[in-house]
Write a structure and sequence with these properties.
By secondary structure, this protein is of the alpha+beta class. It has two helices and seven strands, in the order H-E-E-E-E-H-E-E-E. The radius of gyration is 22 Å and the shape is elongated.
């Protein structure tokens, strides 16, 4: 999951290269403008053939250069809504960003989005037994 958060941070830096990106809580000394990336409740949905879909929701909070600058908040909101379509993890792996929801609250921009991916479980205990003495060609 940390790899996904790091990739999202790189993508946000492309959207606003002047912003500082925080992935952990900061008690004081925040440098604005900045983004905070906060993972929310992750959901694992079972699928067929030992596959699972992982829904990894993330909240992105943006603090503008000047507190309460609605013009800047709207500009960043538009950039995120139009440019945050996928997050590249490297090695030709990208995650699609879905369910982008944004709102301006108390002088900050709050964006919630889902980063979805699939997992395939590999269980070493599942081995196929060979049937000795069975002739597949019917002979």
């Amino acid at each position: 999951m940390q790899e996904i958060i790091n990739a999202l941070a790189r993508r946000l830096k492309q959207i606003d290269e002047t912003a500082t990106i925080y992935q952990d809580d900061v008690e004081q000394g925040v440098k604005e403008p900045c983004f905070f990336i906060t993972p929310l409740i992750t959901v694992k949905q079972p699928r067929i053939m030992k596959q699972s879909r992982i829904v990894f929701p993330v909240q992105i909070t943006y603090l503008p250069k000047k507190p309460g600058d609605h013009a800047e908040l709207i500009e960043i909101q538009n950039k995120i809504m139009t440019q945050l379509e996928q997050v590249d993890l490297g090695s030709d792996i990208s995650l699609r960003v879905s369910s982008l929801i944004s709102e301006i609250v108390a002088g900050t921009l709050q964006v919630t989005c889902n980063l979805n991916y699939s997992l395939v479980s590999v269980d070493e205990t599942d081995k196929f037994e060979t049937l000795e003495g069975v002739n597949i060609n019917g002979g």
